[in-house]
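fyi for ur records
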Amino acid sequence: MFQMVAKEGSITKAAERLGYVQSNVTARVRQLEAELGTTLFVRHNRGMLLSASGKTLLAYADKIIGMLDEATHALSAGSEPVGQLQIGSTQSAAAVRLPRLLTAYYGRYPRVLLSLTTGTTQSLQDKVLRYELDGAFVGHRHEHPELQTYAAFDEELVVVSAPTVLTLEEAAAKPILVLSAGCSYRDVLVRWLDAGGYSQPLIMEFGTLEAVIGGVSAGLGISLLPRSVADKPEADGLLRTLALPLELSRMETTFIVRKESHASGALAAFIRLLEEAGKVG
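which gave:
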């Protein structure tokens, strides 16, 4: 109940999601606060916000509930993978690299309820750590002590601009179009500009990869994309690709999972499929 109230920010919404009466949820949250001797929520007229103590407890609650789900999967695992498999991915990998892989997985294991969530590298890492995702494809190799990292894809990165932009120097004077903070491509773009001594440009954030490509093709600014994503728009005459300096032009997409957790049959089968495809070292 505490976890649901924290996520919904409202007793009423949490009760609806859980199928409980509102008074029951209210009473249980107050009982939890009394037992712990601390305030977990700050109440206001539009809902509830986590207090500092509440944020600490939520981190533990996510792990506890995630481990209970893992235990259920471990004890019910049969010879054929079943149940849910929640995979995360950066938008670029989801657009180009994953469709064939996910189709092959579903064709082999049709009883698995497969879902794909897209986001930035940082947000996906956080969701894996909070047990909200079983694993995720992210924009670079991670050394987080709680994560196991597998090499997945090696990408060539290119600056993309409107077709009328001819050089990197010209591109560097344009605004940069990126996904939200935590996007690994955004970090590389900023490093390139800093290394070249270019003045910091205007940064515009967009919610989807399609919106970024549309803005670039319209001449609004430049961005950074894997060549595998940029090839088709360039062939269609929408974009121009410009090569980065060699030291910035490669990025490894990796697949991350939690360490020291029992992989469900569905997740273990997914990793095996990656290995069979020669995508994991």
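The mean pLDDT is 87. thats all i got for now
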